[in-house]
């Protein structure tokens, strides 16, 4: 690399820069927001604005990408992902990689602060304190105020960001260009805010790598994705199997690990209605999947929902399940990935001369299986009772209609002509049509012979009054 001209003068004359306001997440190269021709002629630096805006109208977060040929980019000198997120990290790099460089002159050659085009709008929104880094005294944000573009007080962009965070999100010129859309907390499908309630189960974030230094980063409500045929099991050219397809980058994400957390989340939820809402969302995501792990998880969730419908309270529902969540302890290949889990398996496995009471263990297993079968029988009996009542009620309805039809046909046979005969004929035809519809309804109700878990949702909701939410 060519040697760099070093200016030992203490006098720094900054160039005249025209600071053009930019949009959140906008990027560019060179002046006025990145160095040019440094340290060698022709060297290009890139910049990118972040999502947070101060009350003074400039971006709190900004990123600087150096030329890839500079020294020290693959060592501890360079922050993660080869991007500078603060003046302090850049200052450290310059002093280590170019000890003879004039750091003051370097920073004076461009503007670190980037004005926001919508700065005035952001000042009118809810104001939150800046989370500044204690290790970055060069980041001047003493009285700055941070806001979210969408006005969300709980936006992830307002949280402290360290250099150990994941890759930054890729700037988007479509939805992110909207003045009130925030890629960190606005659903890409409906543009409404996501909710962090109950561990944020209701939304999914796309972390697909879309470039060397960026992820997609867009979020979406799972309900919105299901309605838009962007999640769940979708055939045809989309080809999803318990997966999510991001509308921004078309990357697919496996939803089974996400749904697997639902049972754990539900154990911390106090209101039964919320538990059913969470589990029903999991059912909608997994229904129709051909993958074995998705099918097993679906059966587990459906049996839990049936217990709740049959009157099992939340305390009893979770107290009987002391088994650790096996899905969270296995990798996609089926191997144990957690050392603590592996040790716990070794602790209960008879190895070598370790004392082991076979009869006691078998007795314990028999009791556990007995409890499982008892719970299964209770759930099935509850289903049977519901089906029995509704099917017999439908039979009685048809019986009454047939009796009414016989009565009307008898009256019609005694009236050969006249207005009354025409009226009776109309009634008979209407009764026949009514009977036809009720017979079709009974045939649809008989789908419960497969079990409630495999009966179409519309049948359960319309004929058995079992509300199944999305």
UniProtKB/TrEMBL annotation:
Domain DUF7615, chain residue ranges per copy: 358-462
GO CC terms in record: nucleus
Main location: nucleus
Domain DUF7081: 21-116
InterPro entries associated with the record: DUF7081, DUF7615, Oberon-like_PHD
Domain Oberon-like PHD finger: from-to ranges: 151-284
Keywords: Coiled coil, Metal-binding, Nucleus, Zinc, Zinc-finger
GO molecular function ontology, one term from the record: zinc ion binding
Protein name per its UniProtKB record: Uncharacterized protein
């Amino acid at each position: 690399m060519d040697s760099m001209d070093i200016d030992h003068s203490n006098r720094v004359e900054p160039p005249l820069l025209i600071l053009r306001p930019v949009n959140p997440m906008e990027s560019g190269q060179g002046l006025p927001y990145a160095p040019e021709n440094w340290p060698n002629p022709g060297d290009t630096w890139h910049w990118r604005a972040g999502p947070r805006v101060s009350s003074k109208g400039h971006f709190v977060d900004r990123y600087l990408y150096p030329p890839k040929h500079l020294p020290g980019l693959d060592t501890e000198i360079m922050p993660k992902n080869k991007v500078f997120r603060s003046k302090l990290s850049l200052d450290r790099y310059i002093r280590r990689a170019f000890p003879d460089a004039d750091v003051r002159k370097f920073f004076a050659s461009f503007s670190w602060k980037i004005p926001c085009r919508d700065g005035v709008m952001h000042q009118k929104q809810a104001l939150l304190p800046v989370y500044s880094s204690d290790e970055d005294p060069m980041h001047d944000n003493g009285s700055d105020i941070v806001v979210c573009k969408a006005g969300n007080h709980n936006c992830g962009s307002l949280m402290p960001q360290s250099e150990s965070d994941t890759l930054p999100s890729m700037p988007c010129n479509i939805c992110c260009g909207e003045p009130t859309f925030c890629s960190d907390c606005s659903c890409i499908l409906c543009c409404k805010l996501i909710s962090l309630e109950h561990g944020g189960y209701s939304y999914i974030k796309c972390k697909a790598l879309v470039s060397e230094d960026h992820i997609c980063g867009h979020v979406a409500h799972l309900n919105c994705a299901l309605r838009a045929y962007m999640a769940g099991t979708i055939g045809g050219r989309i080809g999803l199997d318990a997966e999510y397809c991001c509308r921004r980058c078309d990357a697919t994400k496996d939803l089974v690990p996400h749904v697997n957390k639902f049972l754990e989340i539900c154990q911390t939820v106090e209101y039964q209605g919320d538990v059913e809402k969470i589990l029903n969302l999991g059912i909608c995501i997994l229904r129709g999947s051909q993958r074995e792990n998705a099918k097993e998880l679906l059966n587990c969730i459906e049996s839990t929902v049936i217990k709740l419908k049959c009157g099992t309270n939340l305390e009893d529902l979770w107290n009987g399940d002391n088994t650790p969540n096996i899905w969270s302890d296995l990798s996609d290949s089926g191997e144990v990935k957690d050392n603590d889990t592996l040790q716990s398996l070794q602790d209960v496995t008879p190895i070598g001369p370790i004392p082991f009471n076979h009869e006691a263990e078998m007795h314990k297993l028999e009791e556990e299986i007995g409890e499982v079968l008892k719970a299964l029988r209770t759930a099935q009996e509850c289903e049977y009772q519901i089906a029995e009542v509704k099917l017999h009620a439908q039979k009685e309805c048809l019986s009454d209609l047939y009796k009414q039809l016989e009565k009307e046909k008898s009256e019609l046979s005694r009236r050969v002509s006249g207005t009354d005969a025409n009226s009776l004929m109309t009634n008979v035809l209407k009764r026949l049509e009514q009977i036809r519809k009720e017979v079709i309804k009974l045939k649809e109700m008989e789908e419960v012979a497969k079990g409630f878990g495999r009966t179409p949702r519309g049948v359960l909701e319309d004929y058995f009054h079992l509300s199944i939410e999305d």
